[in-house]
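Exam revision sheet. Question 4 asks you to relate a sequence to its structure. Input first:
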Amino acid sequence: MLWTSVDAIDTKAGGVLAFGAAVIAIARDVDSLTAKVGIGVGIAAVFLAMWALFPRRHPYLSPDGLRNYLGADITLARRQVWVAEAAMVSDLAEILRRKARRLGVALAALVIAVALIATGTLVSDGGASHRSRHHRSGSGAHHRP
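Answer key, structure tokens:
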């Protein structure tokens, strides 16, 4: 159950990472200061998402540690495996909480970045698209009636 939850958080963090990178790439040509701040927040969101993906170590059931119990009593070996499993579940729950917290901060930062970029784009263009700014009335083809 916990492994599935950790994998689900990793998948969501990957989605935040990809969406953040796409938003940053699309918004890179916007000239507004607000949008530039949004791009900076988006970059922070991407790094936070990468931090949520940070690999985890599970040293509890290593084969080297189990070799010590080959000649031991079977009940002692089983008890040690149960103790290791309990410690692993406890640590995995803490890892899950930390990853979820990092993902939440990354997602909030991405929402703020998108809002800033959208606001900066609308304010700098006056509601027009980026391409239409380059085709003002004094430039381009002139049509005669």
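Marking note for examiners. The first helix runs from residue 2 to 27.
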